[in-house]
Design a protein that fits this description.
Blueprint (H helix, E strand, L loop, with lengths): L6 E2 L1 H14 L5 E4 L4 E6 L5 E6 L4 E7 L2 E2 L5 E3 L6 E6 L5 E5 L3 E6 L4 E6 L5 E6 L5 E6 L4 E5 L5 E3 L11 E6 L5 E6 L3 E6 L5 E5 L5 E6 L5 E6 L4 E5 L5 E4 L6 E6 L6 E5 L4 E4 L6 E4 L6 E6 L5 E6 L3 E6 L6 H9 L8 H7 E2 L2
Antiparallel strand pairs: 1-31, 2-30, 3-4, 4-5, 5-6, 5-7, 8-9, 9-10, 10-11, 12-13, 13-14, 14-15, 16-17, 17-18, 18-19, 20-21, 21-22, 22-23, 24-25, 25-26, 26-27, 28-29, 29-30
Length: 350
Amino acid sequence: MAFYETKPTPEAEAVLRQATVTAHRRATVRAGTDGAVNDVAFSPDGGWLAGVGRDGTVRVWARTGRDLRQAPVAELRGHQGPVWGVAVAPDGRVASAGDDGIVRVRDWRTAAEVVLQGHAGPVQDVAFDPEGRRLASGGADGTVRLWDLTTHSADVLPGDPSGDQSKVWGVAFSPDGTHLAAAHADGVVRVWNLADRTVRRLAGHDGPVRSVAFSPDGRHLASGGNDGTVRLWDTATGASLVLRGHEGQAWSVAFSPDGRRLASSGDDGTVRVWNPAAGEPVVIDGFGASVGEVDFAPDGRHLATGHGDGTTRIWRCEACEDVHEVLALARTRVTRDLTDEERSAFLRAP
């Protein structure tokens, strides 16, 4: 069987990535919880994973390669009711957002704990700043709070000039820590300049926005919403690219560490891995349950997903590989040579 020293066109690359994933289903390791998994987050070194769910427990699983040990290395209790969000600081502390209106920041290795109270209702999400000195929390009370983790005091970020105050589903810091984005139930993404506390509105979703994530270079902001779309916002101009494909709600978005891939998860039981430059996704399905959360490992080659059936999974994302690695993988799986028509349509000279 012949191989050609040629490069795939962008269209062919998308087909190739999809075919590679379809032809080789990843092995899945499951770690059970009591109720749906609401959020997952990797440690900075990728050596462990934190997950939270409806049973009110924060679980920490050690990781070996793609595998999660079946028994958690830590189970952190204290919340009364479901836990909706989790985040991991650069030093390994774990923050959790509870339906009880409380934010807990804990070191599972030493049992040290800080309890932060202030929201008038459930806390939906939390995020550490890049240095781990501040923590943002967003709640059903429509407020975004910025906590100083040294003094344990909080500033409530100013509301929208329009006077609108709707439930906050997700929060995310920019990579340089100068801006904070929040996903709101009124369909608007709000971005605060933390220096002068001014707020910018990014409107476009038709319904609640469920999650936000900045690209590693800070030039783009991704959002996923109940309208099933993922939007890629230009942080300088506010212009957006609409990525369509999910059937039902798009629950979560996450950029790969190099910014070349954007993953989204949905109520349709799929994870879609997008090339932000081309807007074409590789669809990974077969989970059998809604995929509530997705997070990239620091190596950029593995993804963690949290599911409505109570499972947490880590799997190798072959669609996230460099195109040369995808081509090498495809060469081990092709079953025939290309026809002249296929060669003309899908290959280009280097």
